[in-house]
Amino acid sequence: MLETGKVLLNEKVGKDIWRMELKCPWIAKKAKPGQFVNVRVKDVAEPLLRRPISLHGIDDANGIISLLYLVVGRGTEMMTHMENGDSIDLLGPLGNGFSTFFHGRRAVIVAGGIGSAPFYPLMEALRKKDKQIKMIYGARDEESLACLDLYEEEGVEMILVTEDGSVGEKGFVTNPLDRLLGEEGADFVYACGPEAMLKAVEGVVEKYHLKGEVSTEARMGCGLGVCLSCSKKAKDGKNRKCCQDGPVFAMGVMDYE
Ligand SMILES: Cc1cc2nc3c(=O)[nH]c(=O)nc-3n(C[C@H](O)[C@H](O)[C@H](O)COP(=O)(O)OP(=O)(O)OC[C@H]3O[C@@H](n4cnc5c(N)ncnc54)[C@H](O)[C@@H]3O)c2cc1C
Ligand code: FES
Predict the structure, then answer these.
(1) Structural domain boundaries enclosing 12
(2) I need a labelling partner for 77 at 20 to 30 A (CA). Which of 21, 69, 98, 100 fits?
(3) Does 73 sit in the ligand 1 pocket, CB within 6 Å?
């Protein structure tokens, strides 16, 4: 479960967004779309806690994974200084991933900001099952949208949304989602992004009586289901551990209040 990854590439791909490729064959072999790794920059005392980052690429054949990360604080800022050949201590793959079993062919992916990170391996898995994929990808502005070329190469039909209207539709992802589900329908919806977005997306999906899954976030400690720091309330009144019961949950399970 612990593996030392070797950095193969670490490049800026958007506003405060970086993409890192790592050689770590064991994790690449075991990982499923939607799982994450707990990252610690090796040989430094600070930050002590590991940082959870989703798997943005899983290349089992070549033993390579990739991470897409937004710089928000000390840990992610330190990651930007990693160079080719450097080592990173990784714990993973962790959590449960996305399910790819659903009736019908039409998948809709809704991503808000860095919430796009876990979706590339899911797209690859869905394409292998001959599913059709539409992605509604929203962010603050054009520079905050990353890796569009990768998704287009995967044959994904993209609907871009920005808050400032600098590219695509102006507004929030729920507007085109409501329109798409109303006009064409879908067989399954996946979403990842800020909680307010997840709540709104679930509302739209429920309106059309559809099913889906969300990938959620929480402040994490151990990543292994032990420390309970990632506990979040579910609608049944019980808590769920984001690291172990999630980060992916069926829509309708979590309570975002
Ligand atoms: C399962 C999971 C998967 C994730 N995948 C990705 C990913 O693929 N790419 C990515 O960029 N980020 C991802 N995150 C969020 C990422 O873990 C945090 O942004 C990171 O830990 C921040 O570390 P830091 O040391 O840079 O910032 P810190 O100094 O720890 O925090 C800086 C700011 O970020 C906020 N923050 C820190 N951690 C979180 C968190 N978990 N959720 C929401 N806000 C947070 C803090 O409140 C603070 O305002 C994921 C989180 C989880 C739980
Ligand atoms: S992070 Fe420790 S229980 Fe989830």
Answers:
(1) 2-94
(2) 98
(3) yes
